[in-house]
Structures are given as structure tokens and as C-alpha cells.
Amino acid sequence: MISGIFIKVLSIILLIGVGIVLILGIGTLFKGGETSKKYSNKLMQLRVLLQFIAIIVLIVFAYFFKD
């Protein structure tokens, strides 16, 4: 069975990943210029995808591993 520590670590990793992509996206947006045109929208799309994955994983953990 999956241990509680594994669930917590995976949840934290997912949330940190979302935060990093968010910070990179905002930084690219404020940098402006060609970099912003090329990467800002892609980073925000990646953030939304990572948020979706993180929410689904957290919901699955909450449903199957409730005590």
C-alpha cells in the first residue's frame, strides 16, 4: 500500500512544480520583448495543465486514502 509519507511528498512536489512554472511565466511576462512573445503563453498553459494534474491527484488521494 502507498504510505502517507509518499502521498505527502508527491503532493508537495506537484504543488512546488506549479509554483515554479507560475513564477517563470510571470517573470517571462514582465521581461517582455521576444522572450515574452515566445514563452509566456506556453508557460501559462503548462501551469494550467500542472494545476489540473495536481488537483486530480489530490482528489484521488483524498478519496482512496481517507482515514
What topology emerges from the helices and strands here?
Layout: H1 4-31, H2 33-64
Helix pairs in contact: 1-2
What would you say this structure looks like, in words?
The chain starts with a helix and ends with a helix. The protein has 67 residues and is an all-alpha fold. Helix 1 (4-31) runs antiparallel to helix 2. 6% of the residues are buried. The protein is built from 2 helices and no strands. Helix content is 90%, strand content 0%. The chain is elongated, with a radius of gyration of 15 Å. The protein has one domain (4-64).
Features:
single chain, mainly alpha
Overall residue-averaged pLDDT value: 86
Largest sheet: none
Counting structural domains, the number is 1
Query: Helix/strand/pairing class, anyone?
Result: mainly alpha
Shape: elongated
Please state the CA-atom Rg, rounded to the nearest Å: 15 Å
Describe the structure concisely for a colleague.
With 67 residues, this protein is mostly helical. The chain has 2 helices and no strands.
